[in-house]
Amino acid sequence: MPIVKYPRATEPLWHEWDRKAQKCGLRHMVYAVNGDYYTGEWLDNLKHGKGIQVWTRAGAIYSGDWKFGKRDGYGSYSILDPVTKEYKKVYAGWWKNDMKCGYGVTFYSGVERYEGEWSGGLRSGWGRMYFQDGSIYEGQWLEDRPGGQGMLRLPNENRYEGGWKDGKKHGPGKFFYLDKGQLFEGIWAADIPKCGILIDFGRDEAPAPPQYPIPKV
């Protein structure tokens, strides 16, 4: 009886290519069609684990944790300085679902920086902001602006302690005029004092007290 040999079914070549294209585990640099590239860990074709993403056109780089294709965990974000041509860190902290979330530090232009909590990419919770003019705000934040209880210290050491709303003084608060040796305590609305009392406070130590003390009622 003659032996009939049937040709072995060959697997289409694209099957092999597809298996090799699946990204899982640690991979070398992977380029996108627009020139961006990523180096790090993958899971089911998604960035997952530790990795570095470079956006060439935007001049930005992220180095840190990923979860199912999104920045999630701890990482830093830097942008390219057009003058020095070096990457300058603008944020270092925690991320969730591709947005700043948790504790982190953001560096703005000049000496301005924020240290504190974030939620959904916005300053929310407790935080401290250092401003360009030397002022410092420390307290609660809500949707990227001071909201709740906080203290603003000015460059001349005068300070406000009290309530805030939409980034403005609002509610009961105290303003210490340490340069004059006075204290105003009252109610504020949209940065404007509406009612309260003004008394001498540390007048003898003040560098520039008024000519006459405030009479007692």
From TrEMBL:
Keywords annotated in UniProt: Cytoplasmic vesicle, Repeat
GO cellular component: acrosomal vesicle
Pfam families, per database record: MORN
Chief place where the protein resides: cytoplasm
Keyword presence, Repeat: yes
Entries under SMART domains matching the protein: MORN (SM00698)
Name of the protein in question: MORN repeat-containing protein 3
UniProt source species: Thinocorus orbignyianus
Protein encoded by which gene: Morn3
